[in-house]
Design goal:
mainly beta; 2 domains; 21 strands
Length: 248
């Protein structure tokens, strides 16, 4: 009988502001080995396969996030994508926009082609409704909507709209004067376009940018709903001082 090879999983890990996890110090580029029992929530080095799940353990306002490579014995807990591994290599520190992009790719890679939808061209519309579905719209004034659990919606055109309504879903809008909405539990709405706005539901989070006159990023900020004055189901923009402001 051929022994099953140990897994290798690329995941995301959260740390406190000192890059520690439960008092254990980590550094980028280093590999750490756990000698004891590997069991999710009990022993081993923990990380999340689905990037946005890490927000449930480390607040975006005060945490550091990194891509990691989990190897050796791996144990999954089942409730979310949290895993425990015997070995962990810290690859690189990442920012929240990177995590949202990774979340969309993670969902898209797992998506059944039947549940994927894409539209290209001005005034286009794309909609996907199944669990772990993906919807993408790239034209100006386009609309992308994904409604299933762990779904992903992306809209990149000028004055476009992206909406994701399932739990643990991700919505991304990058066009100027676009709108991003994520209303499911633990969902994240990101808008990095000029004069873009974003809203999220209860237990969700938003990511926004503010740009100068030359379209360079002046500020980028993330917040959970319920913190920094962010209320559920209300659109916000980021002002020139980097403060959240309810959209007109």
């Amino acid at each position: 009988m051929v022994a099953k090879k140990d897994e290798t999983v690329v995941a995301v890990k959260g740390f406190d502001s000192k890059m520690q996890c439960r008092g254990y110090q980590f550094e980028v580029g280093q590999t750490y080995v756990h000698e004891g029992v590997v069991k999710a929530c009990e022993g081993g080095f923990h990380s999340c396969e689905y990037p946005l799940d890490v927000f449930g353990y480390y607040d975006p306002a005060t945490s550091i996030y990194a891509t990691v490579e989990a190897t050796g014995k791996i144990d999954r807990r089942g409730e979310d994508s949290k895993i425990a591994s015997a070995s962990l290599r810290i690859k690189a520190v990442i920012q929240i926009p990177d995590m949202v992009a990774m979340a969309i790719k993670w969902i898209t890679d797992k998506c059944d082609p039947v549940k994927a939808a894409h539209s290209k061209g001005n005034l286009s519309a794309s909609s996907a409704t199944g669990n772990q579905s993906a919807s993408s719209a790239t034209g100006d004034r386009s609309a992308s909507s994904a409604t299933g659990y762990q779904s992903a919606s992306s809209a990149t055109g000028y004055q476009s709209a992206s909406s994701a309504t399932g739990d643990r879903s991700a919505s991304s809008a990058t066009g100027d004067r676009s709108a991003s909405s994520a209303t499911g539990k633990n969902a994240v709405a990101m808008n990095i376009g000029v004069a873009g706005k974003a809203k999220a539901g209860k237990d969700g989070a938003i990511v926004l940018c503010n740009h100068d006159a030359d379209y360079n990023i002046r500020h980028i900020r993330a917040s959970k709903v319920g913190e920094n004055g962010i209320e559920a189901d209300k659109y916000y923009v980021l002002d020139d001082e980097g403060n959240f402001k309810e959209a007109a």
